[in-house]
Amino acid sequence: MFRELAALTRREFLKLARNPQAIFTSLMLPLLYLLLFGNGFSFNVAQFVNHALPPPEQQQQLSFLLDQYFRGAPNYYSYFAAGMVGFVTVTATLFIGANVIFDKLFGVFKRTRGTPAPSAAVFGSRLIAGSAQPILLAFFVMGLALAFAHVSGLHGLSVTLPVGPVGALQIVAAIVLLSVMFATVFLTFGVLIDVPQTYFAAVNLINLPVLLTSDALYPWGTMPAWLQNVSSYNPVSLAVNVLREVMFGSGAYPYGPGVYLLGLFAWAAVLVGIAILLVRRALRPLE
Amino acid sequence: MPTNVAIEVEGLKKIYNGKITAVDDISFQVRHGETFGFLGPNGAGKTTTVSMLTAGLRPTHGKAIVDGLDVSHDPEEVKRRIGVIFQESTADGDLTGRENLEVAAGCFGIPGSEGRSRAKLLIDQMQLSDAADRPAKTYSGGMRRRLELAVGLINRPRILFLDEPTLGLDPQGRAGFWSFIRKLREDDGLTVFVTTHYLDEADEMCDRIAIIDHGKIVATGTPTELKDRLGGDAVNLRIQDGAPDLTGLLSGQPGVLSVQKQDGTYRVKCQKGETFVPRAVAACTEAGAAVLGVTVKRPSLDEVFLEYTGREFREEEGPTATDRAVMLQRVQGQLRGRR
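Above: the input entities. Below: the structure tokens describing the complete assembly.
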């Protein structure tokens, strides 16, 4: 099993390395979001508060606003940058299943299925390679957002709490869980579906509702109560909550990062479990 | 199963979706070291049969034993022991030829160093050394086929399945491909099960042939046996004008089935043209009739094919059984979606 998994994983990474255009394109989307979208919405809340309220109330109102609207982040950009990490982790997994469909169309999948390589290795290799890319991209986004904070004229991610080893591990765990979860879902779609158009329709059916019901990009305080409720259970929100709590710390969250990680783990366990059932059936040795 | 039997098929049947019978109760045996041709029109059930024998498709009924293993009970071990060259190209175009082979070796659980050395050996054997480190998408059709063959041999199989292996290749590419197969048979005693659209290839390469039509095997035998069943060779003898009538003389020769005379030419149907001709020429000369010319025409496999299937081999056909099954599944899916 290990040799088969290693060989097929190597193939996935070789294919990735042979396609630098795809790597470049995958970096462009978060770069544009961080540069344009994030900066576009980054109005200065403090300036607004100072202008609107008398000095005795300014600090109190500012803290209240930051807690309510940005859940403890010092500004929208920092709030958004943490959200972007979750956002790109999901969007970078979208094409994983499409690669399976193209491999089916080009006969490569048939060749692999014609060997005794177990279905766990066939699926696992794609999951490893397919999750690694979003994970790396997530850290690229975080690094870029941190770097922007030091560029004059740009907003950037400001971390207001010291992130210790435990916090760093919690961030890594959140990103890995989110990436593996969505990579599993879209990979399963790829195994089950044979037509690219059907695949992309199915992916959009999952991708857009998940992202738009999360608090990855919207300020929490501007969301209606019902959306806040939905968002509380959204896996992207759960992952982003972990990041925001570790980086900014806040009384705005009812639970600590460990609870959100547990929630994320529960989502991952359920989705991976369903995927295993479906994929084992689809990839059984004899069709 | 007798020890010299590589493939044994008994009452094998495949019904798609409970409705479309692609393979209908077929039985045959392939001996070790033999090249067995499986011919039939499009949609006759060739690829479905190959898919079942290569443990890719579960038979609906019947038994298929490959290298002593039942494909239904031990599909992974069957896959480990066989090599398969699919109709379509399955090499990964982004990977080099060498990488394709190394990945294939890994899929068989072959350790890395062993996989690398086998890949190198096969690259040399298939004369791909110059292109080994180029992406496979840059290969010509013939090179891609040779790479497919190398991939199919990476696990050192005892039985090789070739499904339309030379489809789309030019004559040079086809000849080159078969010369590799011939060498493999001679060197390693490989058993080869082949489906092909080229009857000349089947005639030249196969020890025995089975013809399948509408999912049923309609004829089995060596190429010579199948051709002989059509009534033997057609020999034309052109005789000098003024010679006596030779019809009786020629009809009396051993193995002659019929004689017709037309404008100084005798058309003789006989069992073995090559033995009949010297005897006939000698007899005619002795009877004072000079033989001006002789032609011998053996029945071709095309004619055999036409006889058993009622169709020209390259005649355009409708969708295959597999195509029809897929279409049916899609229609059923759409109907379910509307409900």
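Note for the figure: The interface with chain B takes residues 3-4, 6-8, 10-11, 14-15, 18-19, 106-108, 110-118, 121, 285-287 of chain A (CB under 8 Å).
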